Amino acid sequence: MDRKAVILFIAAAFFAAACDTSGDPASKREPDAKYVGQPVGIFEASEWYPGGELGTTDNVTEGCYEDETPAVTAQGLDFEFNMGEAAFERKFTQNTEPFKGLGPAYVRSSCLDCHPGYGHGKWQNQYKAGFGNGYLLVVYHPADGANSDDGPYVAEVTGMPQTKAIAPFLPPIDEDKISLNWVNVSSMESGLPMKFPDGETYELIYPELSIPEDAFNTDPTPYQTGAVAFRLESTIGIIGTGLLDAIPAEDIKEQYRAEAPFVELNPAFWDKAANDFAPTAWYTLAEGQFADGTAAPAGTKMLKRFTYAMTRASLQDGAGANAIWNITNVSRGDRHFLYTTKAWAKAMSETPSVIAAIKADPSSPYYADGTDEGIAEAVLNLLDPSTDQFDNKWHNFTPEMSDDQYYNFLVWHRGLSIPRARNLNRKEVQRGKEVFNKIGCATCHRPSWETKEDNYWAPTITKGKQLPRYRNQKIYPYTDMLQHRLYMKNGIHGSWCRTTPLWGRGLSRANTGAEDRIHDCRARNVIEAIMWHGYSRKSDAFESTEKFYNLPKEDRDAVVEFINSI
Predict the structure, then answer these.
(1) Which of 83, 97, 110, 282 could form a disulfide with 91 if both were Cys (CB 3.0 to 4.6 A apart)?
(2) How far apart are CA 2 and CA 194, in angstroms?
(3) Torsion angle, CA of 103/107/111/113, rounded to 10 degrees?
(4) CA–CA distance, 508 with 334 (Å, rounded to integer)
(5) What DSSP string describes 293-329?
(6) Which of 143, 124, 140 is CA-nearest to residue 132?
């Protein structure tokens, strides 16, 4: 029996037990296996397949987040998918093939460390690199007061600050000195009570971070260049991201136009007066090609859509494709240089313990002529990414990740599926969808999109090889692909945050062991996630949250059941 047949057998035989998300005895509910692919109640037949026929896996058990899409198999890319999966899962080292090149400064040694079970990161009570801890630091200069969420990143550390380093170097930030505390919300700024009208209570928590000046091994420290603030972000779930990449920019533009009259949109993305995208909504790509074979010269523009801040465009140059380089600091053919800063390079070139350790090891690439001065010069120039990356003698790097390895990684990343929906035949879930729509949640968490031609962009490094393609699929990610503001206590850096897709999240506990939500995992369940939307009356989602707050318990529970089923 092949893998897909085994998956279908397991799903049909054990679904009721594996995906029981209600408190009702299983004997009172009918398994949904016989309804899959059929219209039930207010659900269309296509809603069983959130990723469409080409993007949905029938597996809804533990491990389903790891499945390839049917498109991968249909295009004969299973081998490449599996090889790309290895790059995601294996730990990189300093010098062991085939996953070598870690550091010299880095964030994690493995992508899987941040994405346990291929999902969203999990709530943690400390900032410490290791498996399951998907937390990333944001270090910035607050723009208007110590508690501001807004302000530029500090120049002394990278956008994804590194807290680990290969000996003899010191990490840009010593993670042992990072303090993370969770604070209980005693009252909502909006005035909503911490108890529902029927008496049921809920709790909210938020993180407070502190990092002393002596934790920074940079020159100078950020504290010498202005006030410093910190925010916490956890990794975004990576399932189904290839399908999001396939949504046409012109369709997203129509969504902006539909919402613009009713809510303030990020002016960095939308020019309200022109009723069109702002110039800064577009991301500039390197040379590449499109799926239909046409060339994409350097400077090609694509609409930003990935990361919380929507800083990247094209999944093939997006958060994951970028992170395989900047999280591990493993160089590749299109990125010969290190992800570091001049401030760190200078500090390391002036650190006596670093110079002494290199001087004792003539095989070190930083040894140069063996003198203190020569070693310091080599350290400065090799670590400093601001020197000429290709012509300067110091940056004559041999790529540590081969072009084939990188291509396989792109196949894997674009080929991750979405598990099919569950329990759509149940009355509670159907009621949950009705209420979800009625109170306005679907305004931002737009249910469906169409992928059209999916004429994706790919970098030249892939040499024109095909990637998983999702033509003409109706998909149900439950996101408007826009940004909104929730004004949470110690919220997200930059204030604006892309509407997180809801699809597949109901299987998070089965895959990752947790169901934490919101950008920093402050919400430990769906109820907390919803109520954080109403912390402030300035929140774009306050009215919907207030309506949810006033629902009877049966309807609140139905909304949760619905969200966990799609």
Answers:
(1) 110
(2) 51
(3) 120
(4) 34
(5) S-EE-TT-EEE--BTTTT-B-SGGGSHHHHHHHHTTT
(6) 124
DSSP assigned state of 397: P
How many CB atoms neighbour CB 370 within 10 A?
11
| Tens-digit pLDDT profile for residues 185-240 | 999 999 999 999 999 999 999 999 999 999 999 999 999 999 999 999 999 889 99
CB-based burial label for 325 (10 Å; 0-12, 13-18, 19+): buried
Please check the confidence at residue 365 and state whether its pLDDT lies above 60: yes
Single-letter code of the amino acid located at 259: E
Residue 114 near residue 134, CB atoms below 8 Å: yes
Six-digit token pair at 551?
A: 């629902």
CA–CA distances in Å: residue 79 to residues 68, 86, 127: 11, 11, 36
546: left (phi over 0), alpha (psi -120 to 50) or beta: alpha
Calculate the average pLDDT of the chain: 92
CA distance 196 to 198: 5
For 150, the token pair is 């807004």
- Identity at 383, one-letter amino acid code: L
Nearest alpha-carbon partner for 507 in 37, 53, 67 = 67
Q: Are 417 and 67 spatial neighbours (Cβ–Cβ below 8 Å)?
A: yes
| Segment (H or E) for 283 | strand 282-284
Indicate whether 293 pLDDT > 60: yes
Q: Are 366 and 382 in contact (CB under 8 A)?
A: yes
CA-wise closest residue to 149 among 449, 489, 515, 436 = 489
* Single-letter amino acid code for the residue at 566: I
Write down the pLDDT at residue 388.
Answer: 52
DSSP conformational letter for 420: P
Using the 8-state DSSP alphabet, how is residue 448 labeled?
A: -
70-81 pLDDT, tens digit each: 999 999 999 999
DSSP string covering 408-434, please? HHHHHHHTB-EEPP--TTSHHHHHHHH
Query: What is the distance between the alpha carbons of residues 546 and 533, in angstroms, rounded to a whole number?
Result: 9
Calculate what percentage of the chain has a pLDDT beyond 90: 82
Q: What whole-number distance in Å separates Cα of residue 54 and Cα of residue 475? A: 10
Q: How many CB atoms lie within 10 A of CB 290?
A: 14
Question: Cα–Cα distance between 547 and 551 in angstroms, integer?
Answer: 6
Residue 60 belongs to what H/E stretch? none
- pTM reported for the whole predicted model: 0.92
**76 phi-psi bin (left φ>0, alpha ψ -120 to 50, beta other):** left
* 226, two tokens: 């202005």
Max Cα-Cα span within the chain: 79
DSSP letters of 162-205?
--EE-TTSPPSB-GGG-EEEEEE--S-TT---SB-TTS-B---E
State whether residue 367 is helix, strand or coil: coil
Q: Is the dihedral of CA 264, 267, 268, 269 positive or negative?
A: positive
Element (H, E) at 505: none
Q: How many CB atoms lie within 10 A of CB 426?
A: 23
